[in-house]
Amino acid sequence: MASITMNTIRKSYGPVDVLKNISLEIKDGEFISLLGSSGCGKSTLLRIISGLEQQTSGTLHIGGKDMTNVPPKQRSVSMVFQSYALYPHLTVFENMAVPLIMRTMSRTQRFPVLGKYIGSARSIRKEIRAKVLALAESLDIHHLLDRNPSQLSGGQRQRVALGRAMVRDPEVFLMDEPLSNLDTKMRAHMRTELAEIHQKLGSTFVYVTHDQEEAMTMSDRVALMMNGQLMQVATPREIYRKPVHKSVAEFIGAPKINILSGAIVERGVMEVCGVRTAVPGELQANASLGIRPSRLQPAPESSGTWQAQVITVEDMGSSFLLHCELSDGTRTISRIDSRSVVPERGANIHLAPQADCAMFFDANGWNHACHPHLDSDTLHAFSTTPPADSNADHAQGTKEYALASAV
Amino acid sequence: MRHFSYFLRHALLAAGALFMATPFIVMLSTALKSQANIFSGSFSIIPEQWAASGNFGEVFTSLPIIQFMLNGALVTATIFCIQVLVAVPCAYALAKFDFKGRNILFNCVLWSLLIPPQAVAIPVFLELHSLGLLNSYSALILPWTISVLGIFLMRQFFMAIPDDIMDAARMDGMGEISILIRIMLPMAVPALTAFGILSFIAHWNDFFWPLICLQDVQYFTPPLGIAYFKTDDAGIKYGPLMAAACVITIPLLVVFLAARDKFIQGVSVQAGVK
C-alpha cells in the first residue's frame, strides 16, 4: 500500500502552463477525486502519477520512494482509461492476463510456441490462469472470458478494464473518468461497486472526473482543480459547506449556488438588492453573497426578505426548482420541498435566505470565512460551517450573519 | 420511373464491368482456340476449333513456367516481408511518436509517392551495376524493399488506433518494441493484408523492371517469361501465349479470394479498431 506525495509539480507544453505548482499529499488507502472541468489539468496530473507523462519540474513520491524519473512499468500503479483501452484483438481472458504475463515472465518465456519449454513457464502460466479466473469470478465476468471486447456491452467492458487493472494487485489505482461512457443507471451501479472494491482492496485510489456527483459520493477527499491549480482539497462535506473561493462554490453543488452581488454601505454592512445585512467588517467594496438553492426559501414578507417574481417552476419529483428574478434583475434558484406549497409561474413572492448558511466572498472571490489573512479568532467567529453535522450547524449558526433591513 | 432509373444504373454498371472484363474474356477465349481459328477472318467468343489441351500443354512443355512462377513467388514474398519490416516501424514512429521534423519527414514520404519508378530506373540500374548485383534475385528485390505506399498506408492505420491502448500497454509493462509486436502488429492485420495484396499484384505483374535488370532465363518472373512466346521463330503463337497468361493469373485470383474479407476491411482504414 502506498501514499502519494507530489511536491511543486509543474507541467508546461511550450509557453502554456498546464499545471502550476501542484503540491498534494494523498494518504495510503485514500480515495481521492481530482475534480474539475475539462482542460483544468486533472488528467495531466493523473498521467504524471502514472508515469505516462513527465512533469517539467517537481518531485513525485509513491510509497515513500522517489518515482520522479521512473517509467510506468516499474511503478506499482495501474490505470483504468475512459475508453477502457482494451486490446481489441485479444479475448477478455488474454486482456486480463497481459499485465501478469508482462511482469512475471521473462522475455524468452513469453516467446511464442518455444517459450513454454523454458524454465517454469508452464507453471507460471497456470498460476496466471488461476488468478485471472478467480478475479473474473469475483467481478462476475467469468462467462465472458472467451469473448472479444467488441462483443461486450459498455458495462462489461468496464469490468474487464477494472479486472485488468486489479489483476496484479497494484498499490495505487488511477482512474480517468471511467464511468463517463456508461448510461446513467449503469453509472450509479458502478459507482457503488467501485466504492466497494476500494473498501475491499484498501489501495489508494486516484479518481479523475468532471462529474461532481461522482466525486462527492465516492471520495474521502475531493481535490478541486481549476486552470492547472488546486483550488481546494477537502472532504466532500467541507468543500460543499466551506468553499474557499466563489468559483469553488459555483462548481460544487447542483443546482448552482446563488451569487448575489452587494455593496458595502458602511463598515460591516452590506446591501444586497435592497436588503441590508451584517457582514464581517473586513469586507471591502464589490463583495458578494452566496446562498445555496436549498437555503433560499419562499417566506412571508418581512424586512429581511427579497421580493421576487417566479419565472419558471421545474418539477424534479422529490423537490421543485423555483427560478425567480429579484427586483434588481438578479436570477435566483430555490429548491423547495415537494410537499410545500408551490408558487405559480409569474407569482410575486418573497424569498428569505437562511442566514446562517450564507457565504461572503470578497472582491477577489475568496470566501471570507476561509480567508488566510483573517486571524483564527475572526475565522471562528464567522465560521458558517462547524465540522459537526448539519443540525448542530443550524443551532450554532452565528448570529452575526442575521439579515436585517436596518442595522 | 423508379424502375427505369434502377434499370439504367444497372445497365451502366454492367456495361462498365463488361468493358473491364473484355480483355480477360478474350484472353480465355484465345487460349482455347487453335492458331488457325485465331487468325480466321471471323471473331467469336466460343472457339470454333478447340485447342485447349494443345495450347496449355505447350505452356508447360516448351517453357519452364513452373520455374517462372517459383521465381515470382520467391521475389514477391521476399519483397513483401522486407517491406513490412521497414514500413511498420517507420509508420509507427511517424504516427505515434512526437519528434522534431516529423512532419517534414512525413511530407518527404508523401512526395516520394509521386515519383514514378520508371523515372529512377536508370539510376537504380547503374547503382546495381556498380554493386555487381544485376541479373540476380537481388536485382529484382532490392529496389522495392522500401515501400512508400506501405509506410503511408500503415501510418494512416496506426493513426486511427487510440493512444489510450498504447498507454494501457505501457501501464501493463510493455516496452515500445513489445507494443509494436504484441499490440500494433496484430491489430494491423487487415491493413497489412490489403497492402500485401497490392504489393503482391504489383510485383507479380511487373514487366518493366525485370526486363531491364535480367538476362538469364533462370531468374525470369512470370510476365517476362511468357513474353518468350512472342520471339519464337514461328512468329507470335497467340494460343499458348494466352494460355500462359491464364496460368499466371491463377495465383493472383487465389490470393485475392483468400484474403478478400481482410482486404476490404483494411482498405477502410478505421476497421478493426473499434
UniProtKB/TrEMBL annotation, chain B:
Pfam families: BPD_transp_1. The keyword DNA-binding does not apply. Signal peptide: none annotated. Gene3D superfamilies: MetI-like (1.10.3720.10). PROSITE patterns: ABC_TM1. The keyword Transmembrane helix applies. GO terms for cellular component: plasma membrane. Residues 69-259 form the ABC transmembrane type-1 domain. It is found in: Cell membrane. It comes from the Bacteria. InterPro entries: MetI-like, MetI-like_sf. Keywords: Cell membrane, Membrane, Transmembrane, Transmembrane helix, Transport. It is a multi-pass membrane protein. The chain crosses the membrane at residues 12-32, 65-92, 104-125, 137-158, 179-202, 238-259. SUPFAM superfamilies: MetI-like. Belongs to the binding-protein-dependent transport system permease family. This is Sugar ABC transporter permease. The lineage of its organism: Bacteria, Pseudomonadati, Thermodesulfobacteriota, Desulfovibrionia, Desulfovibrionales.
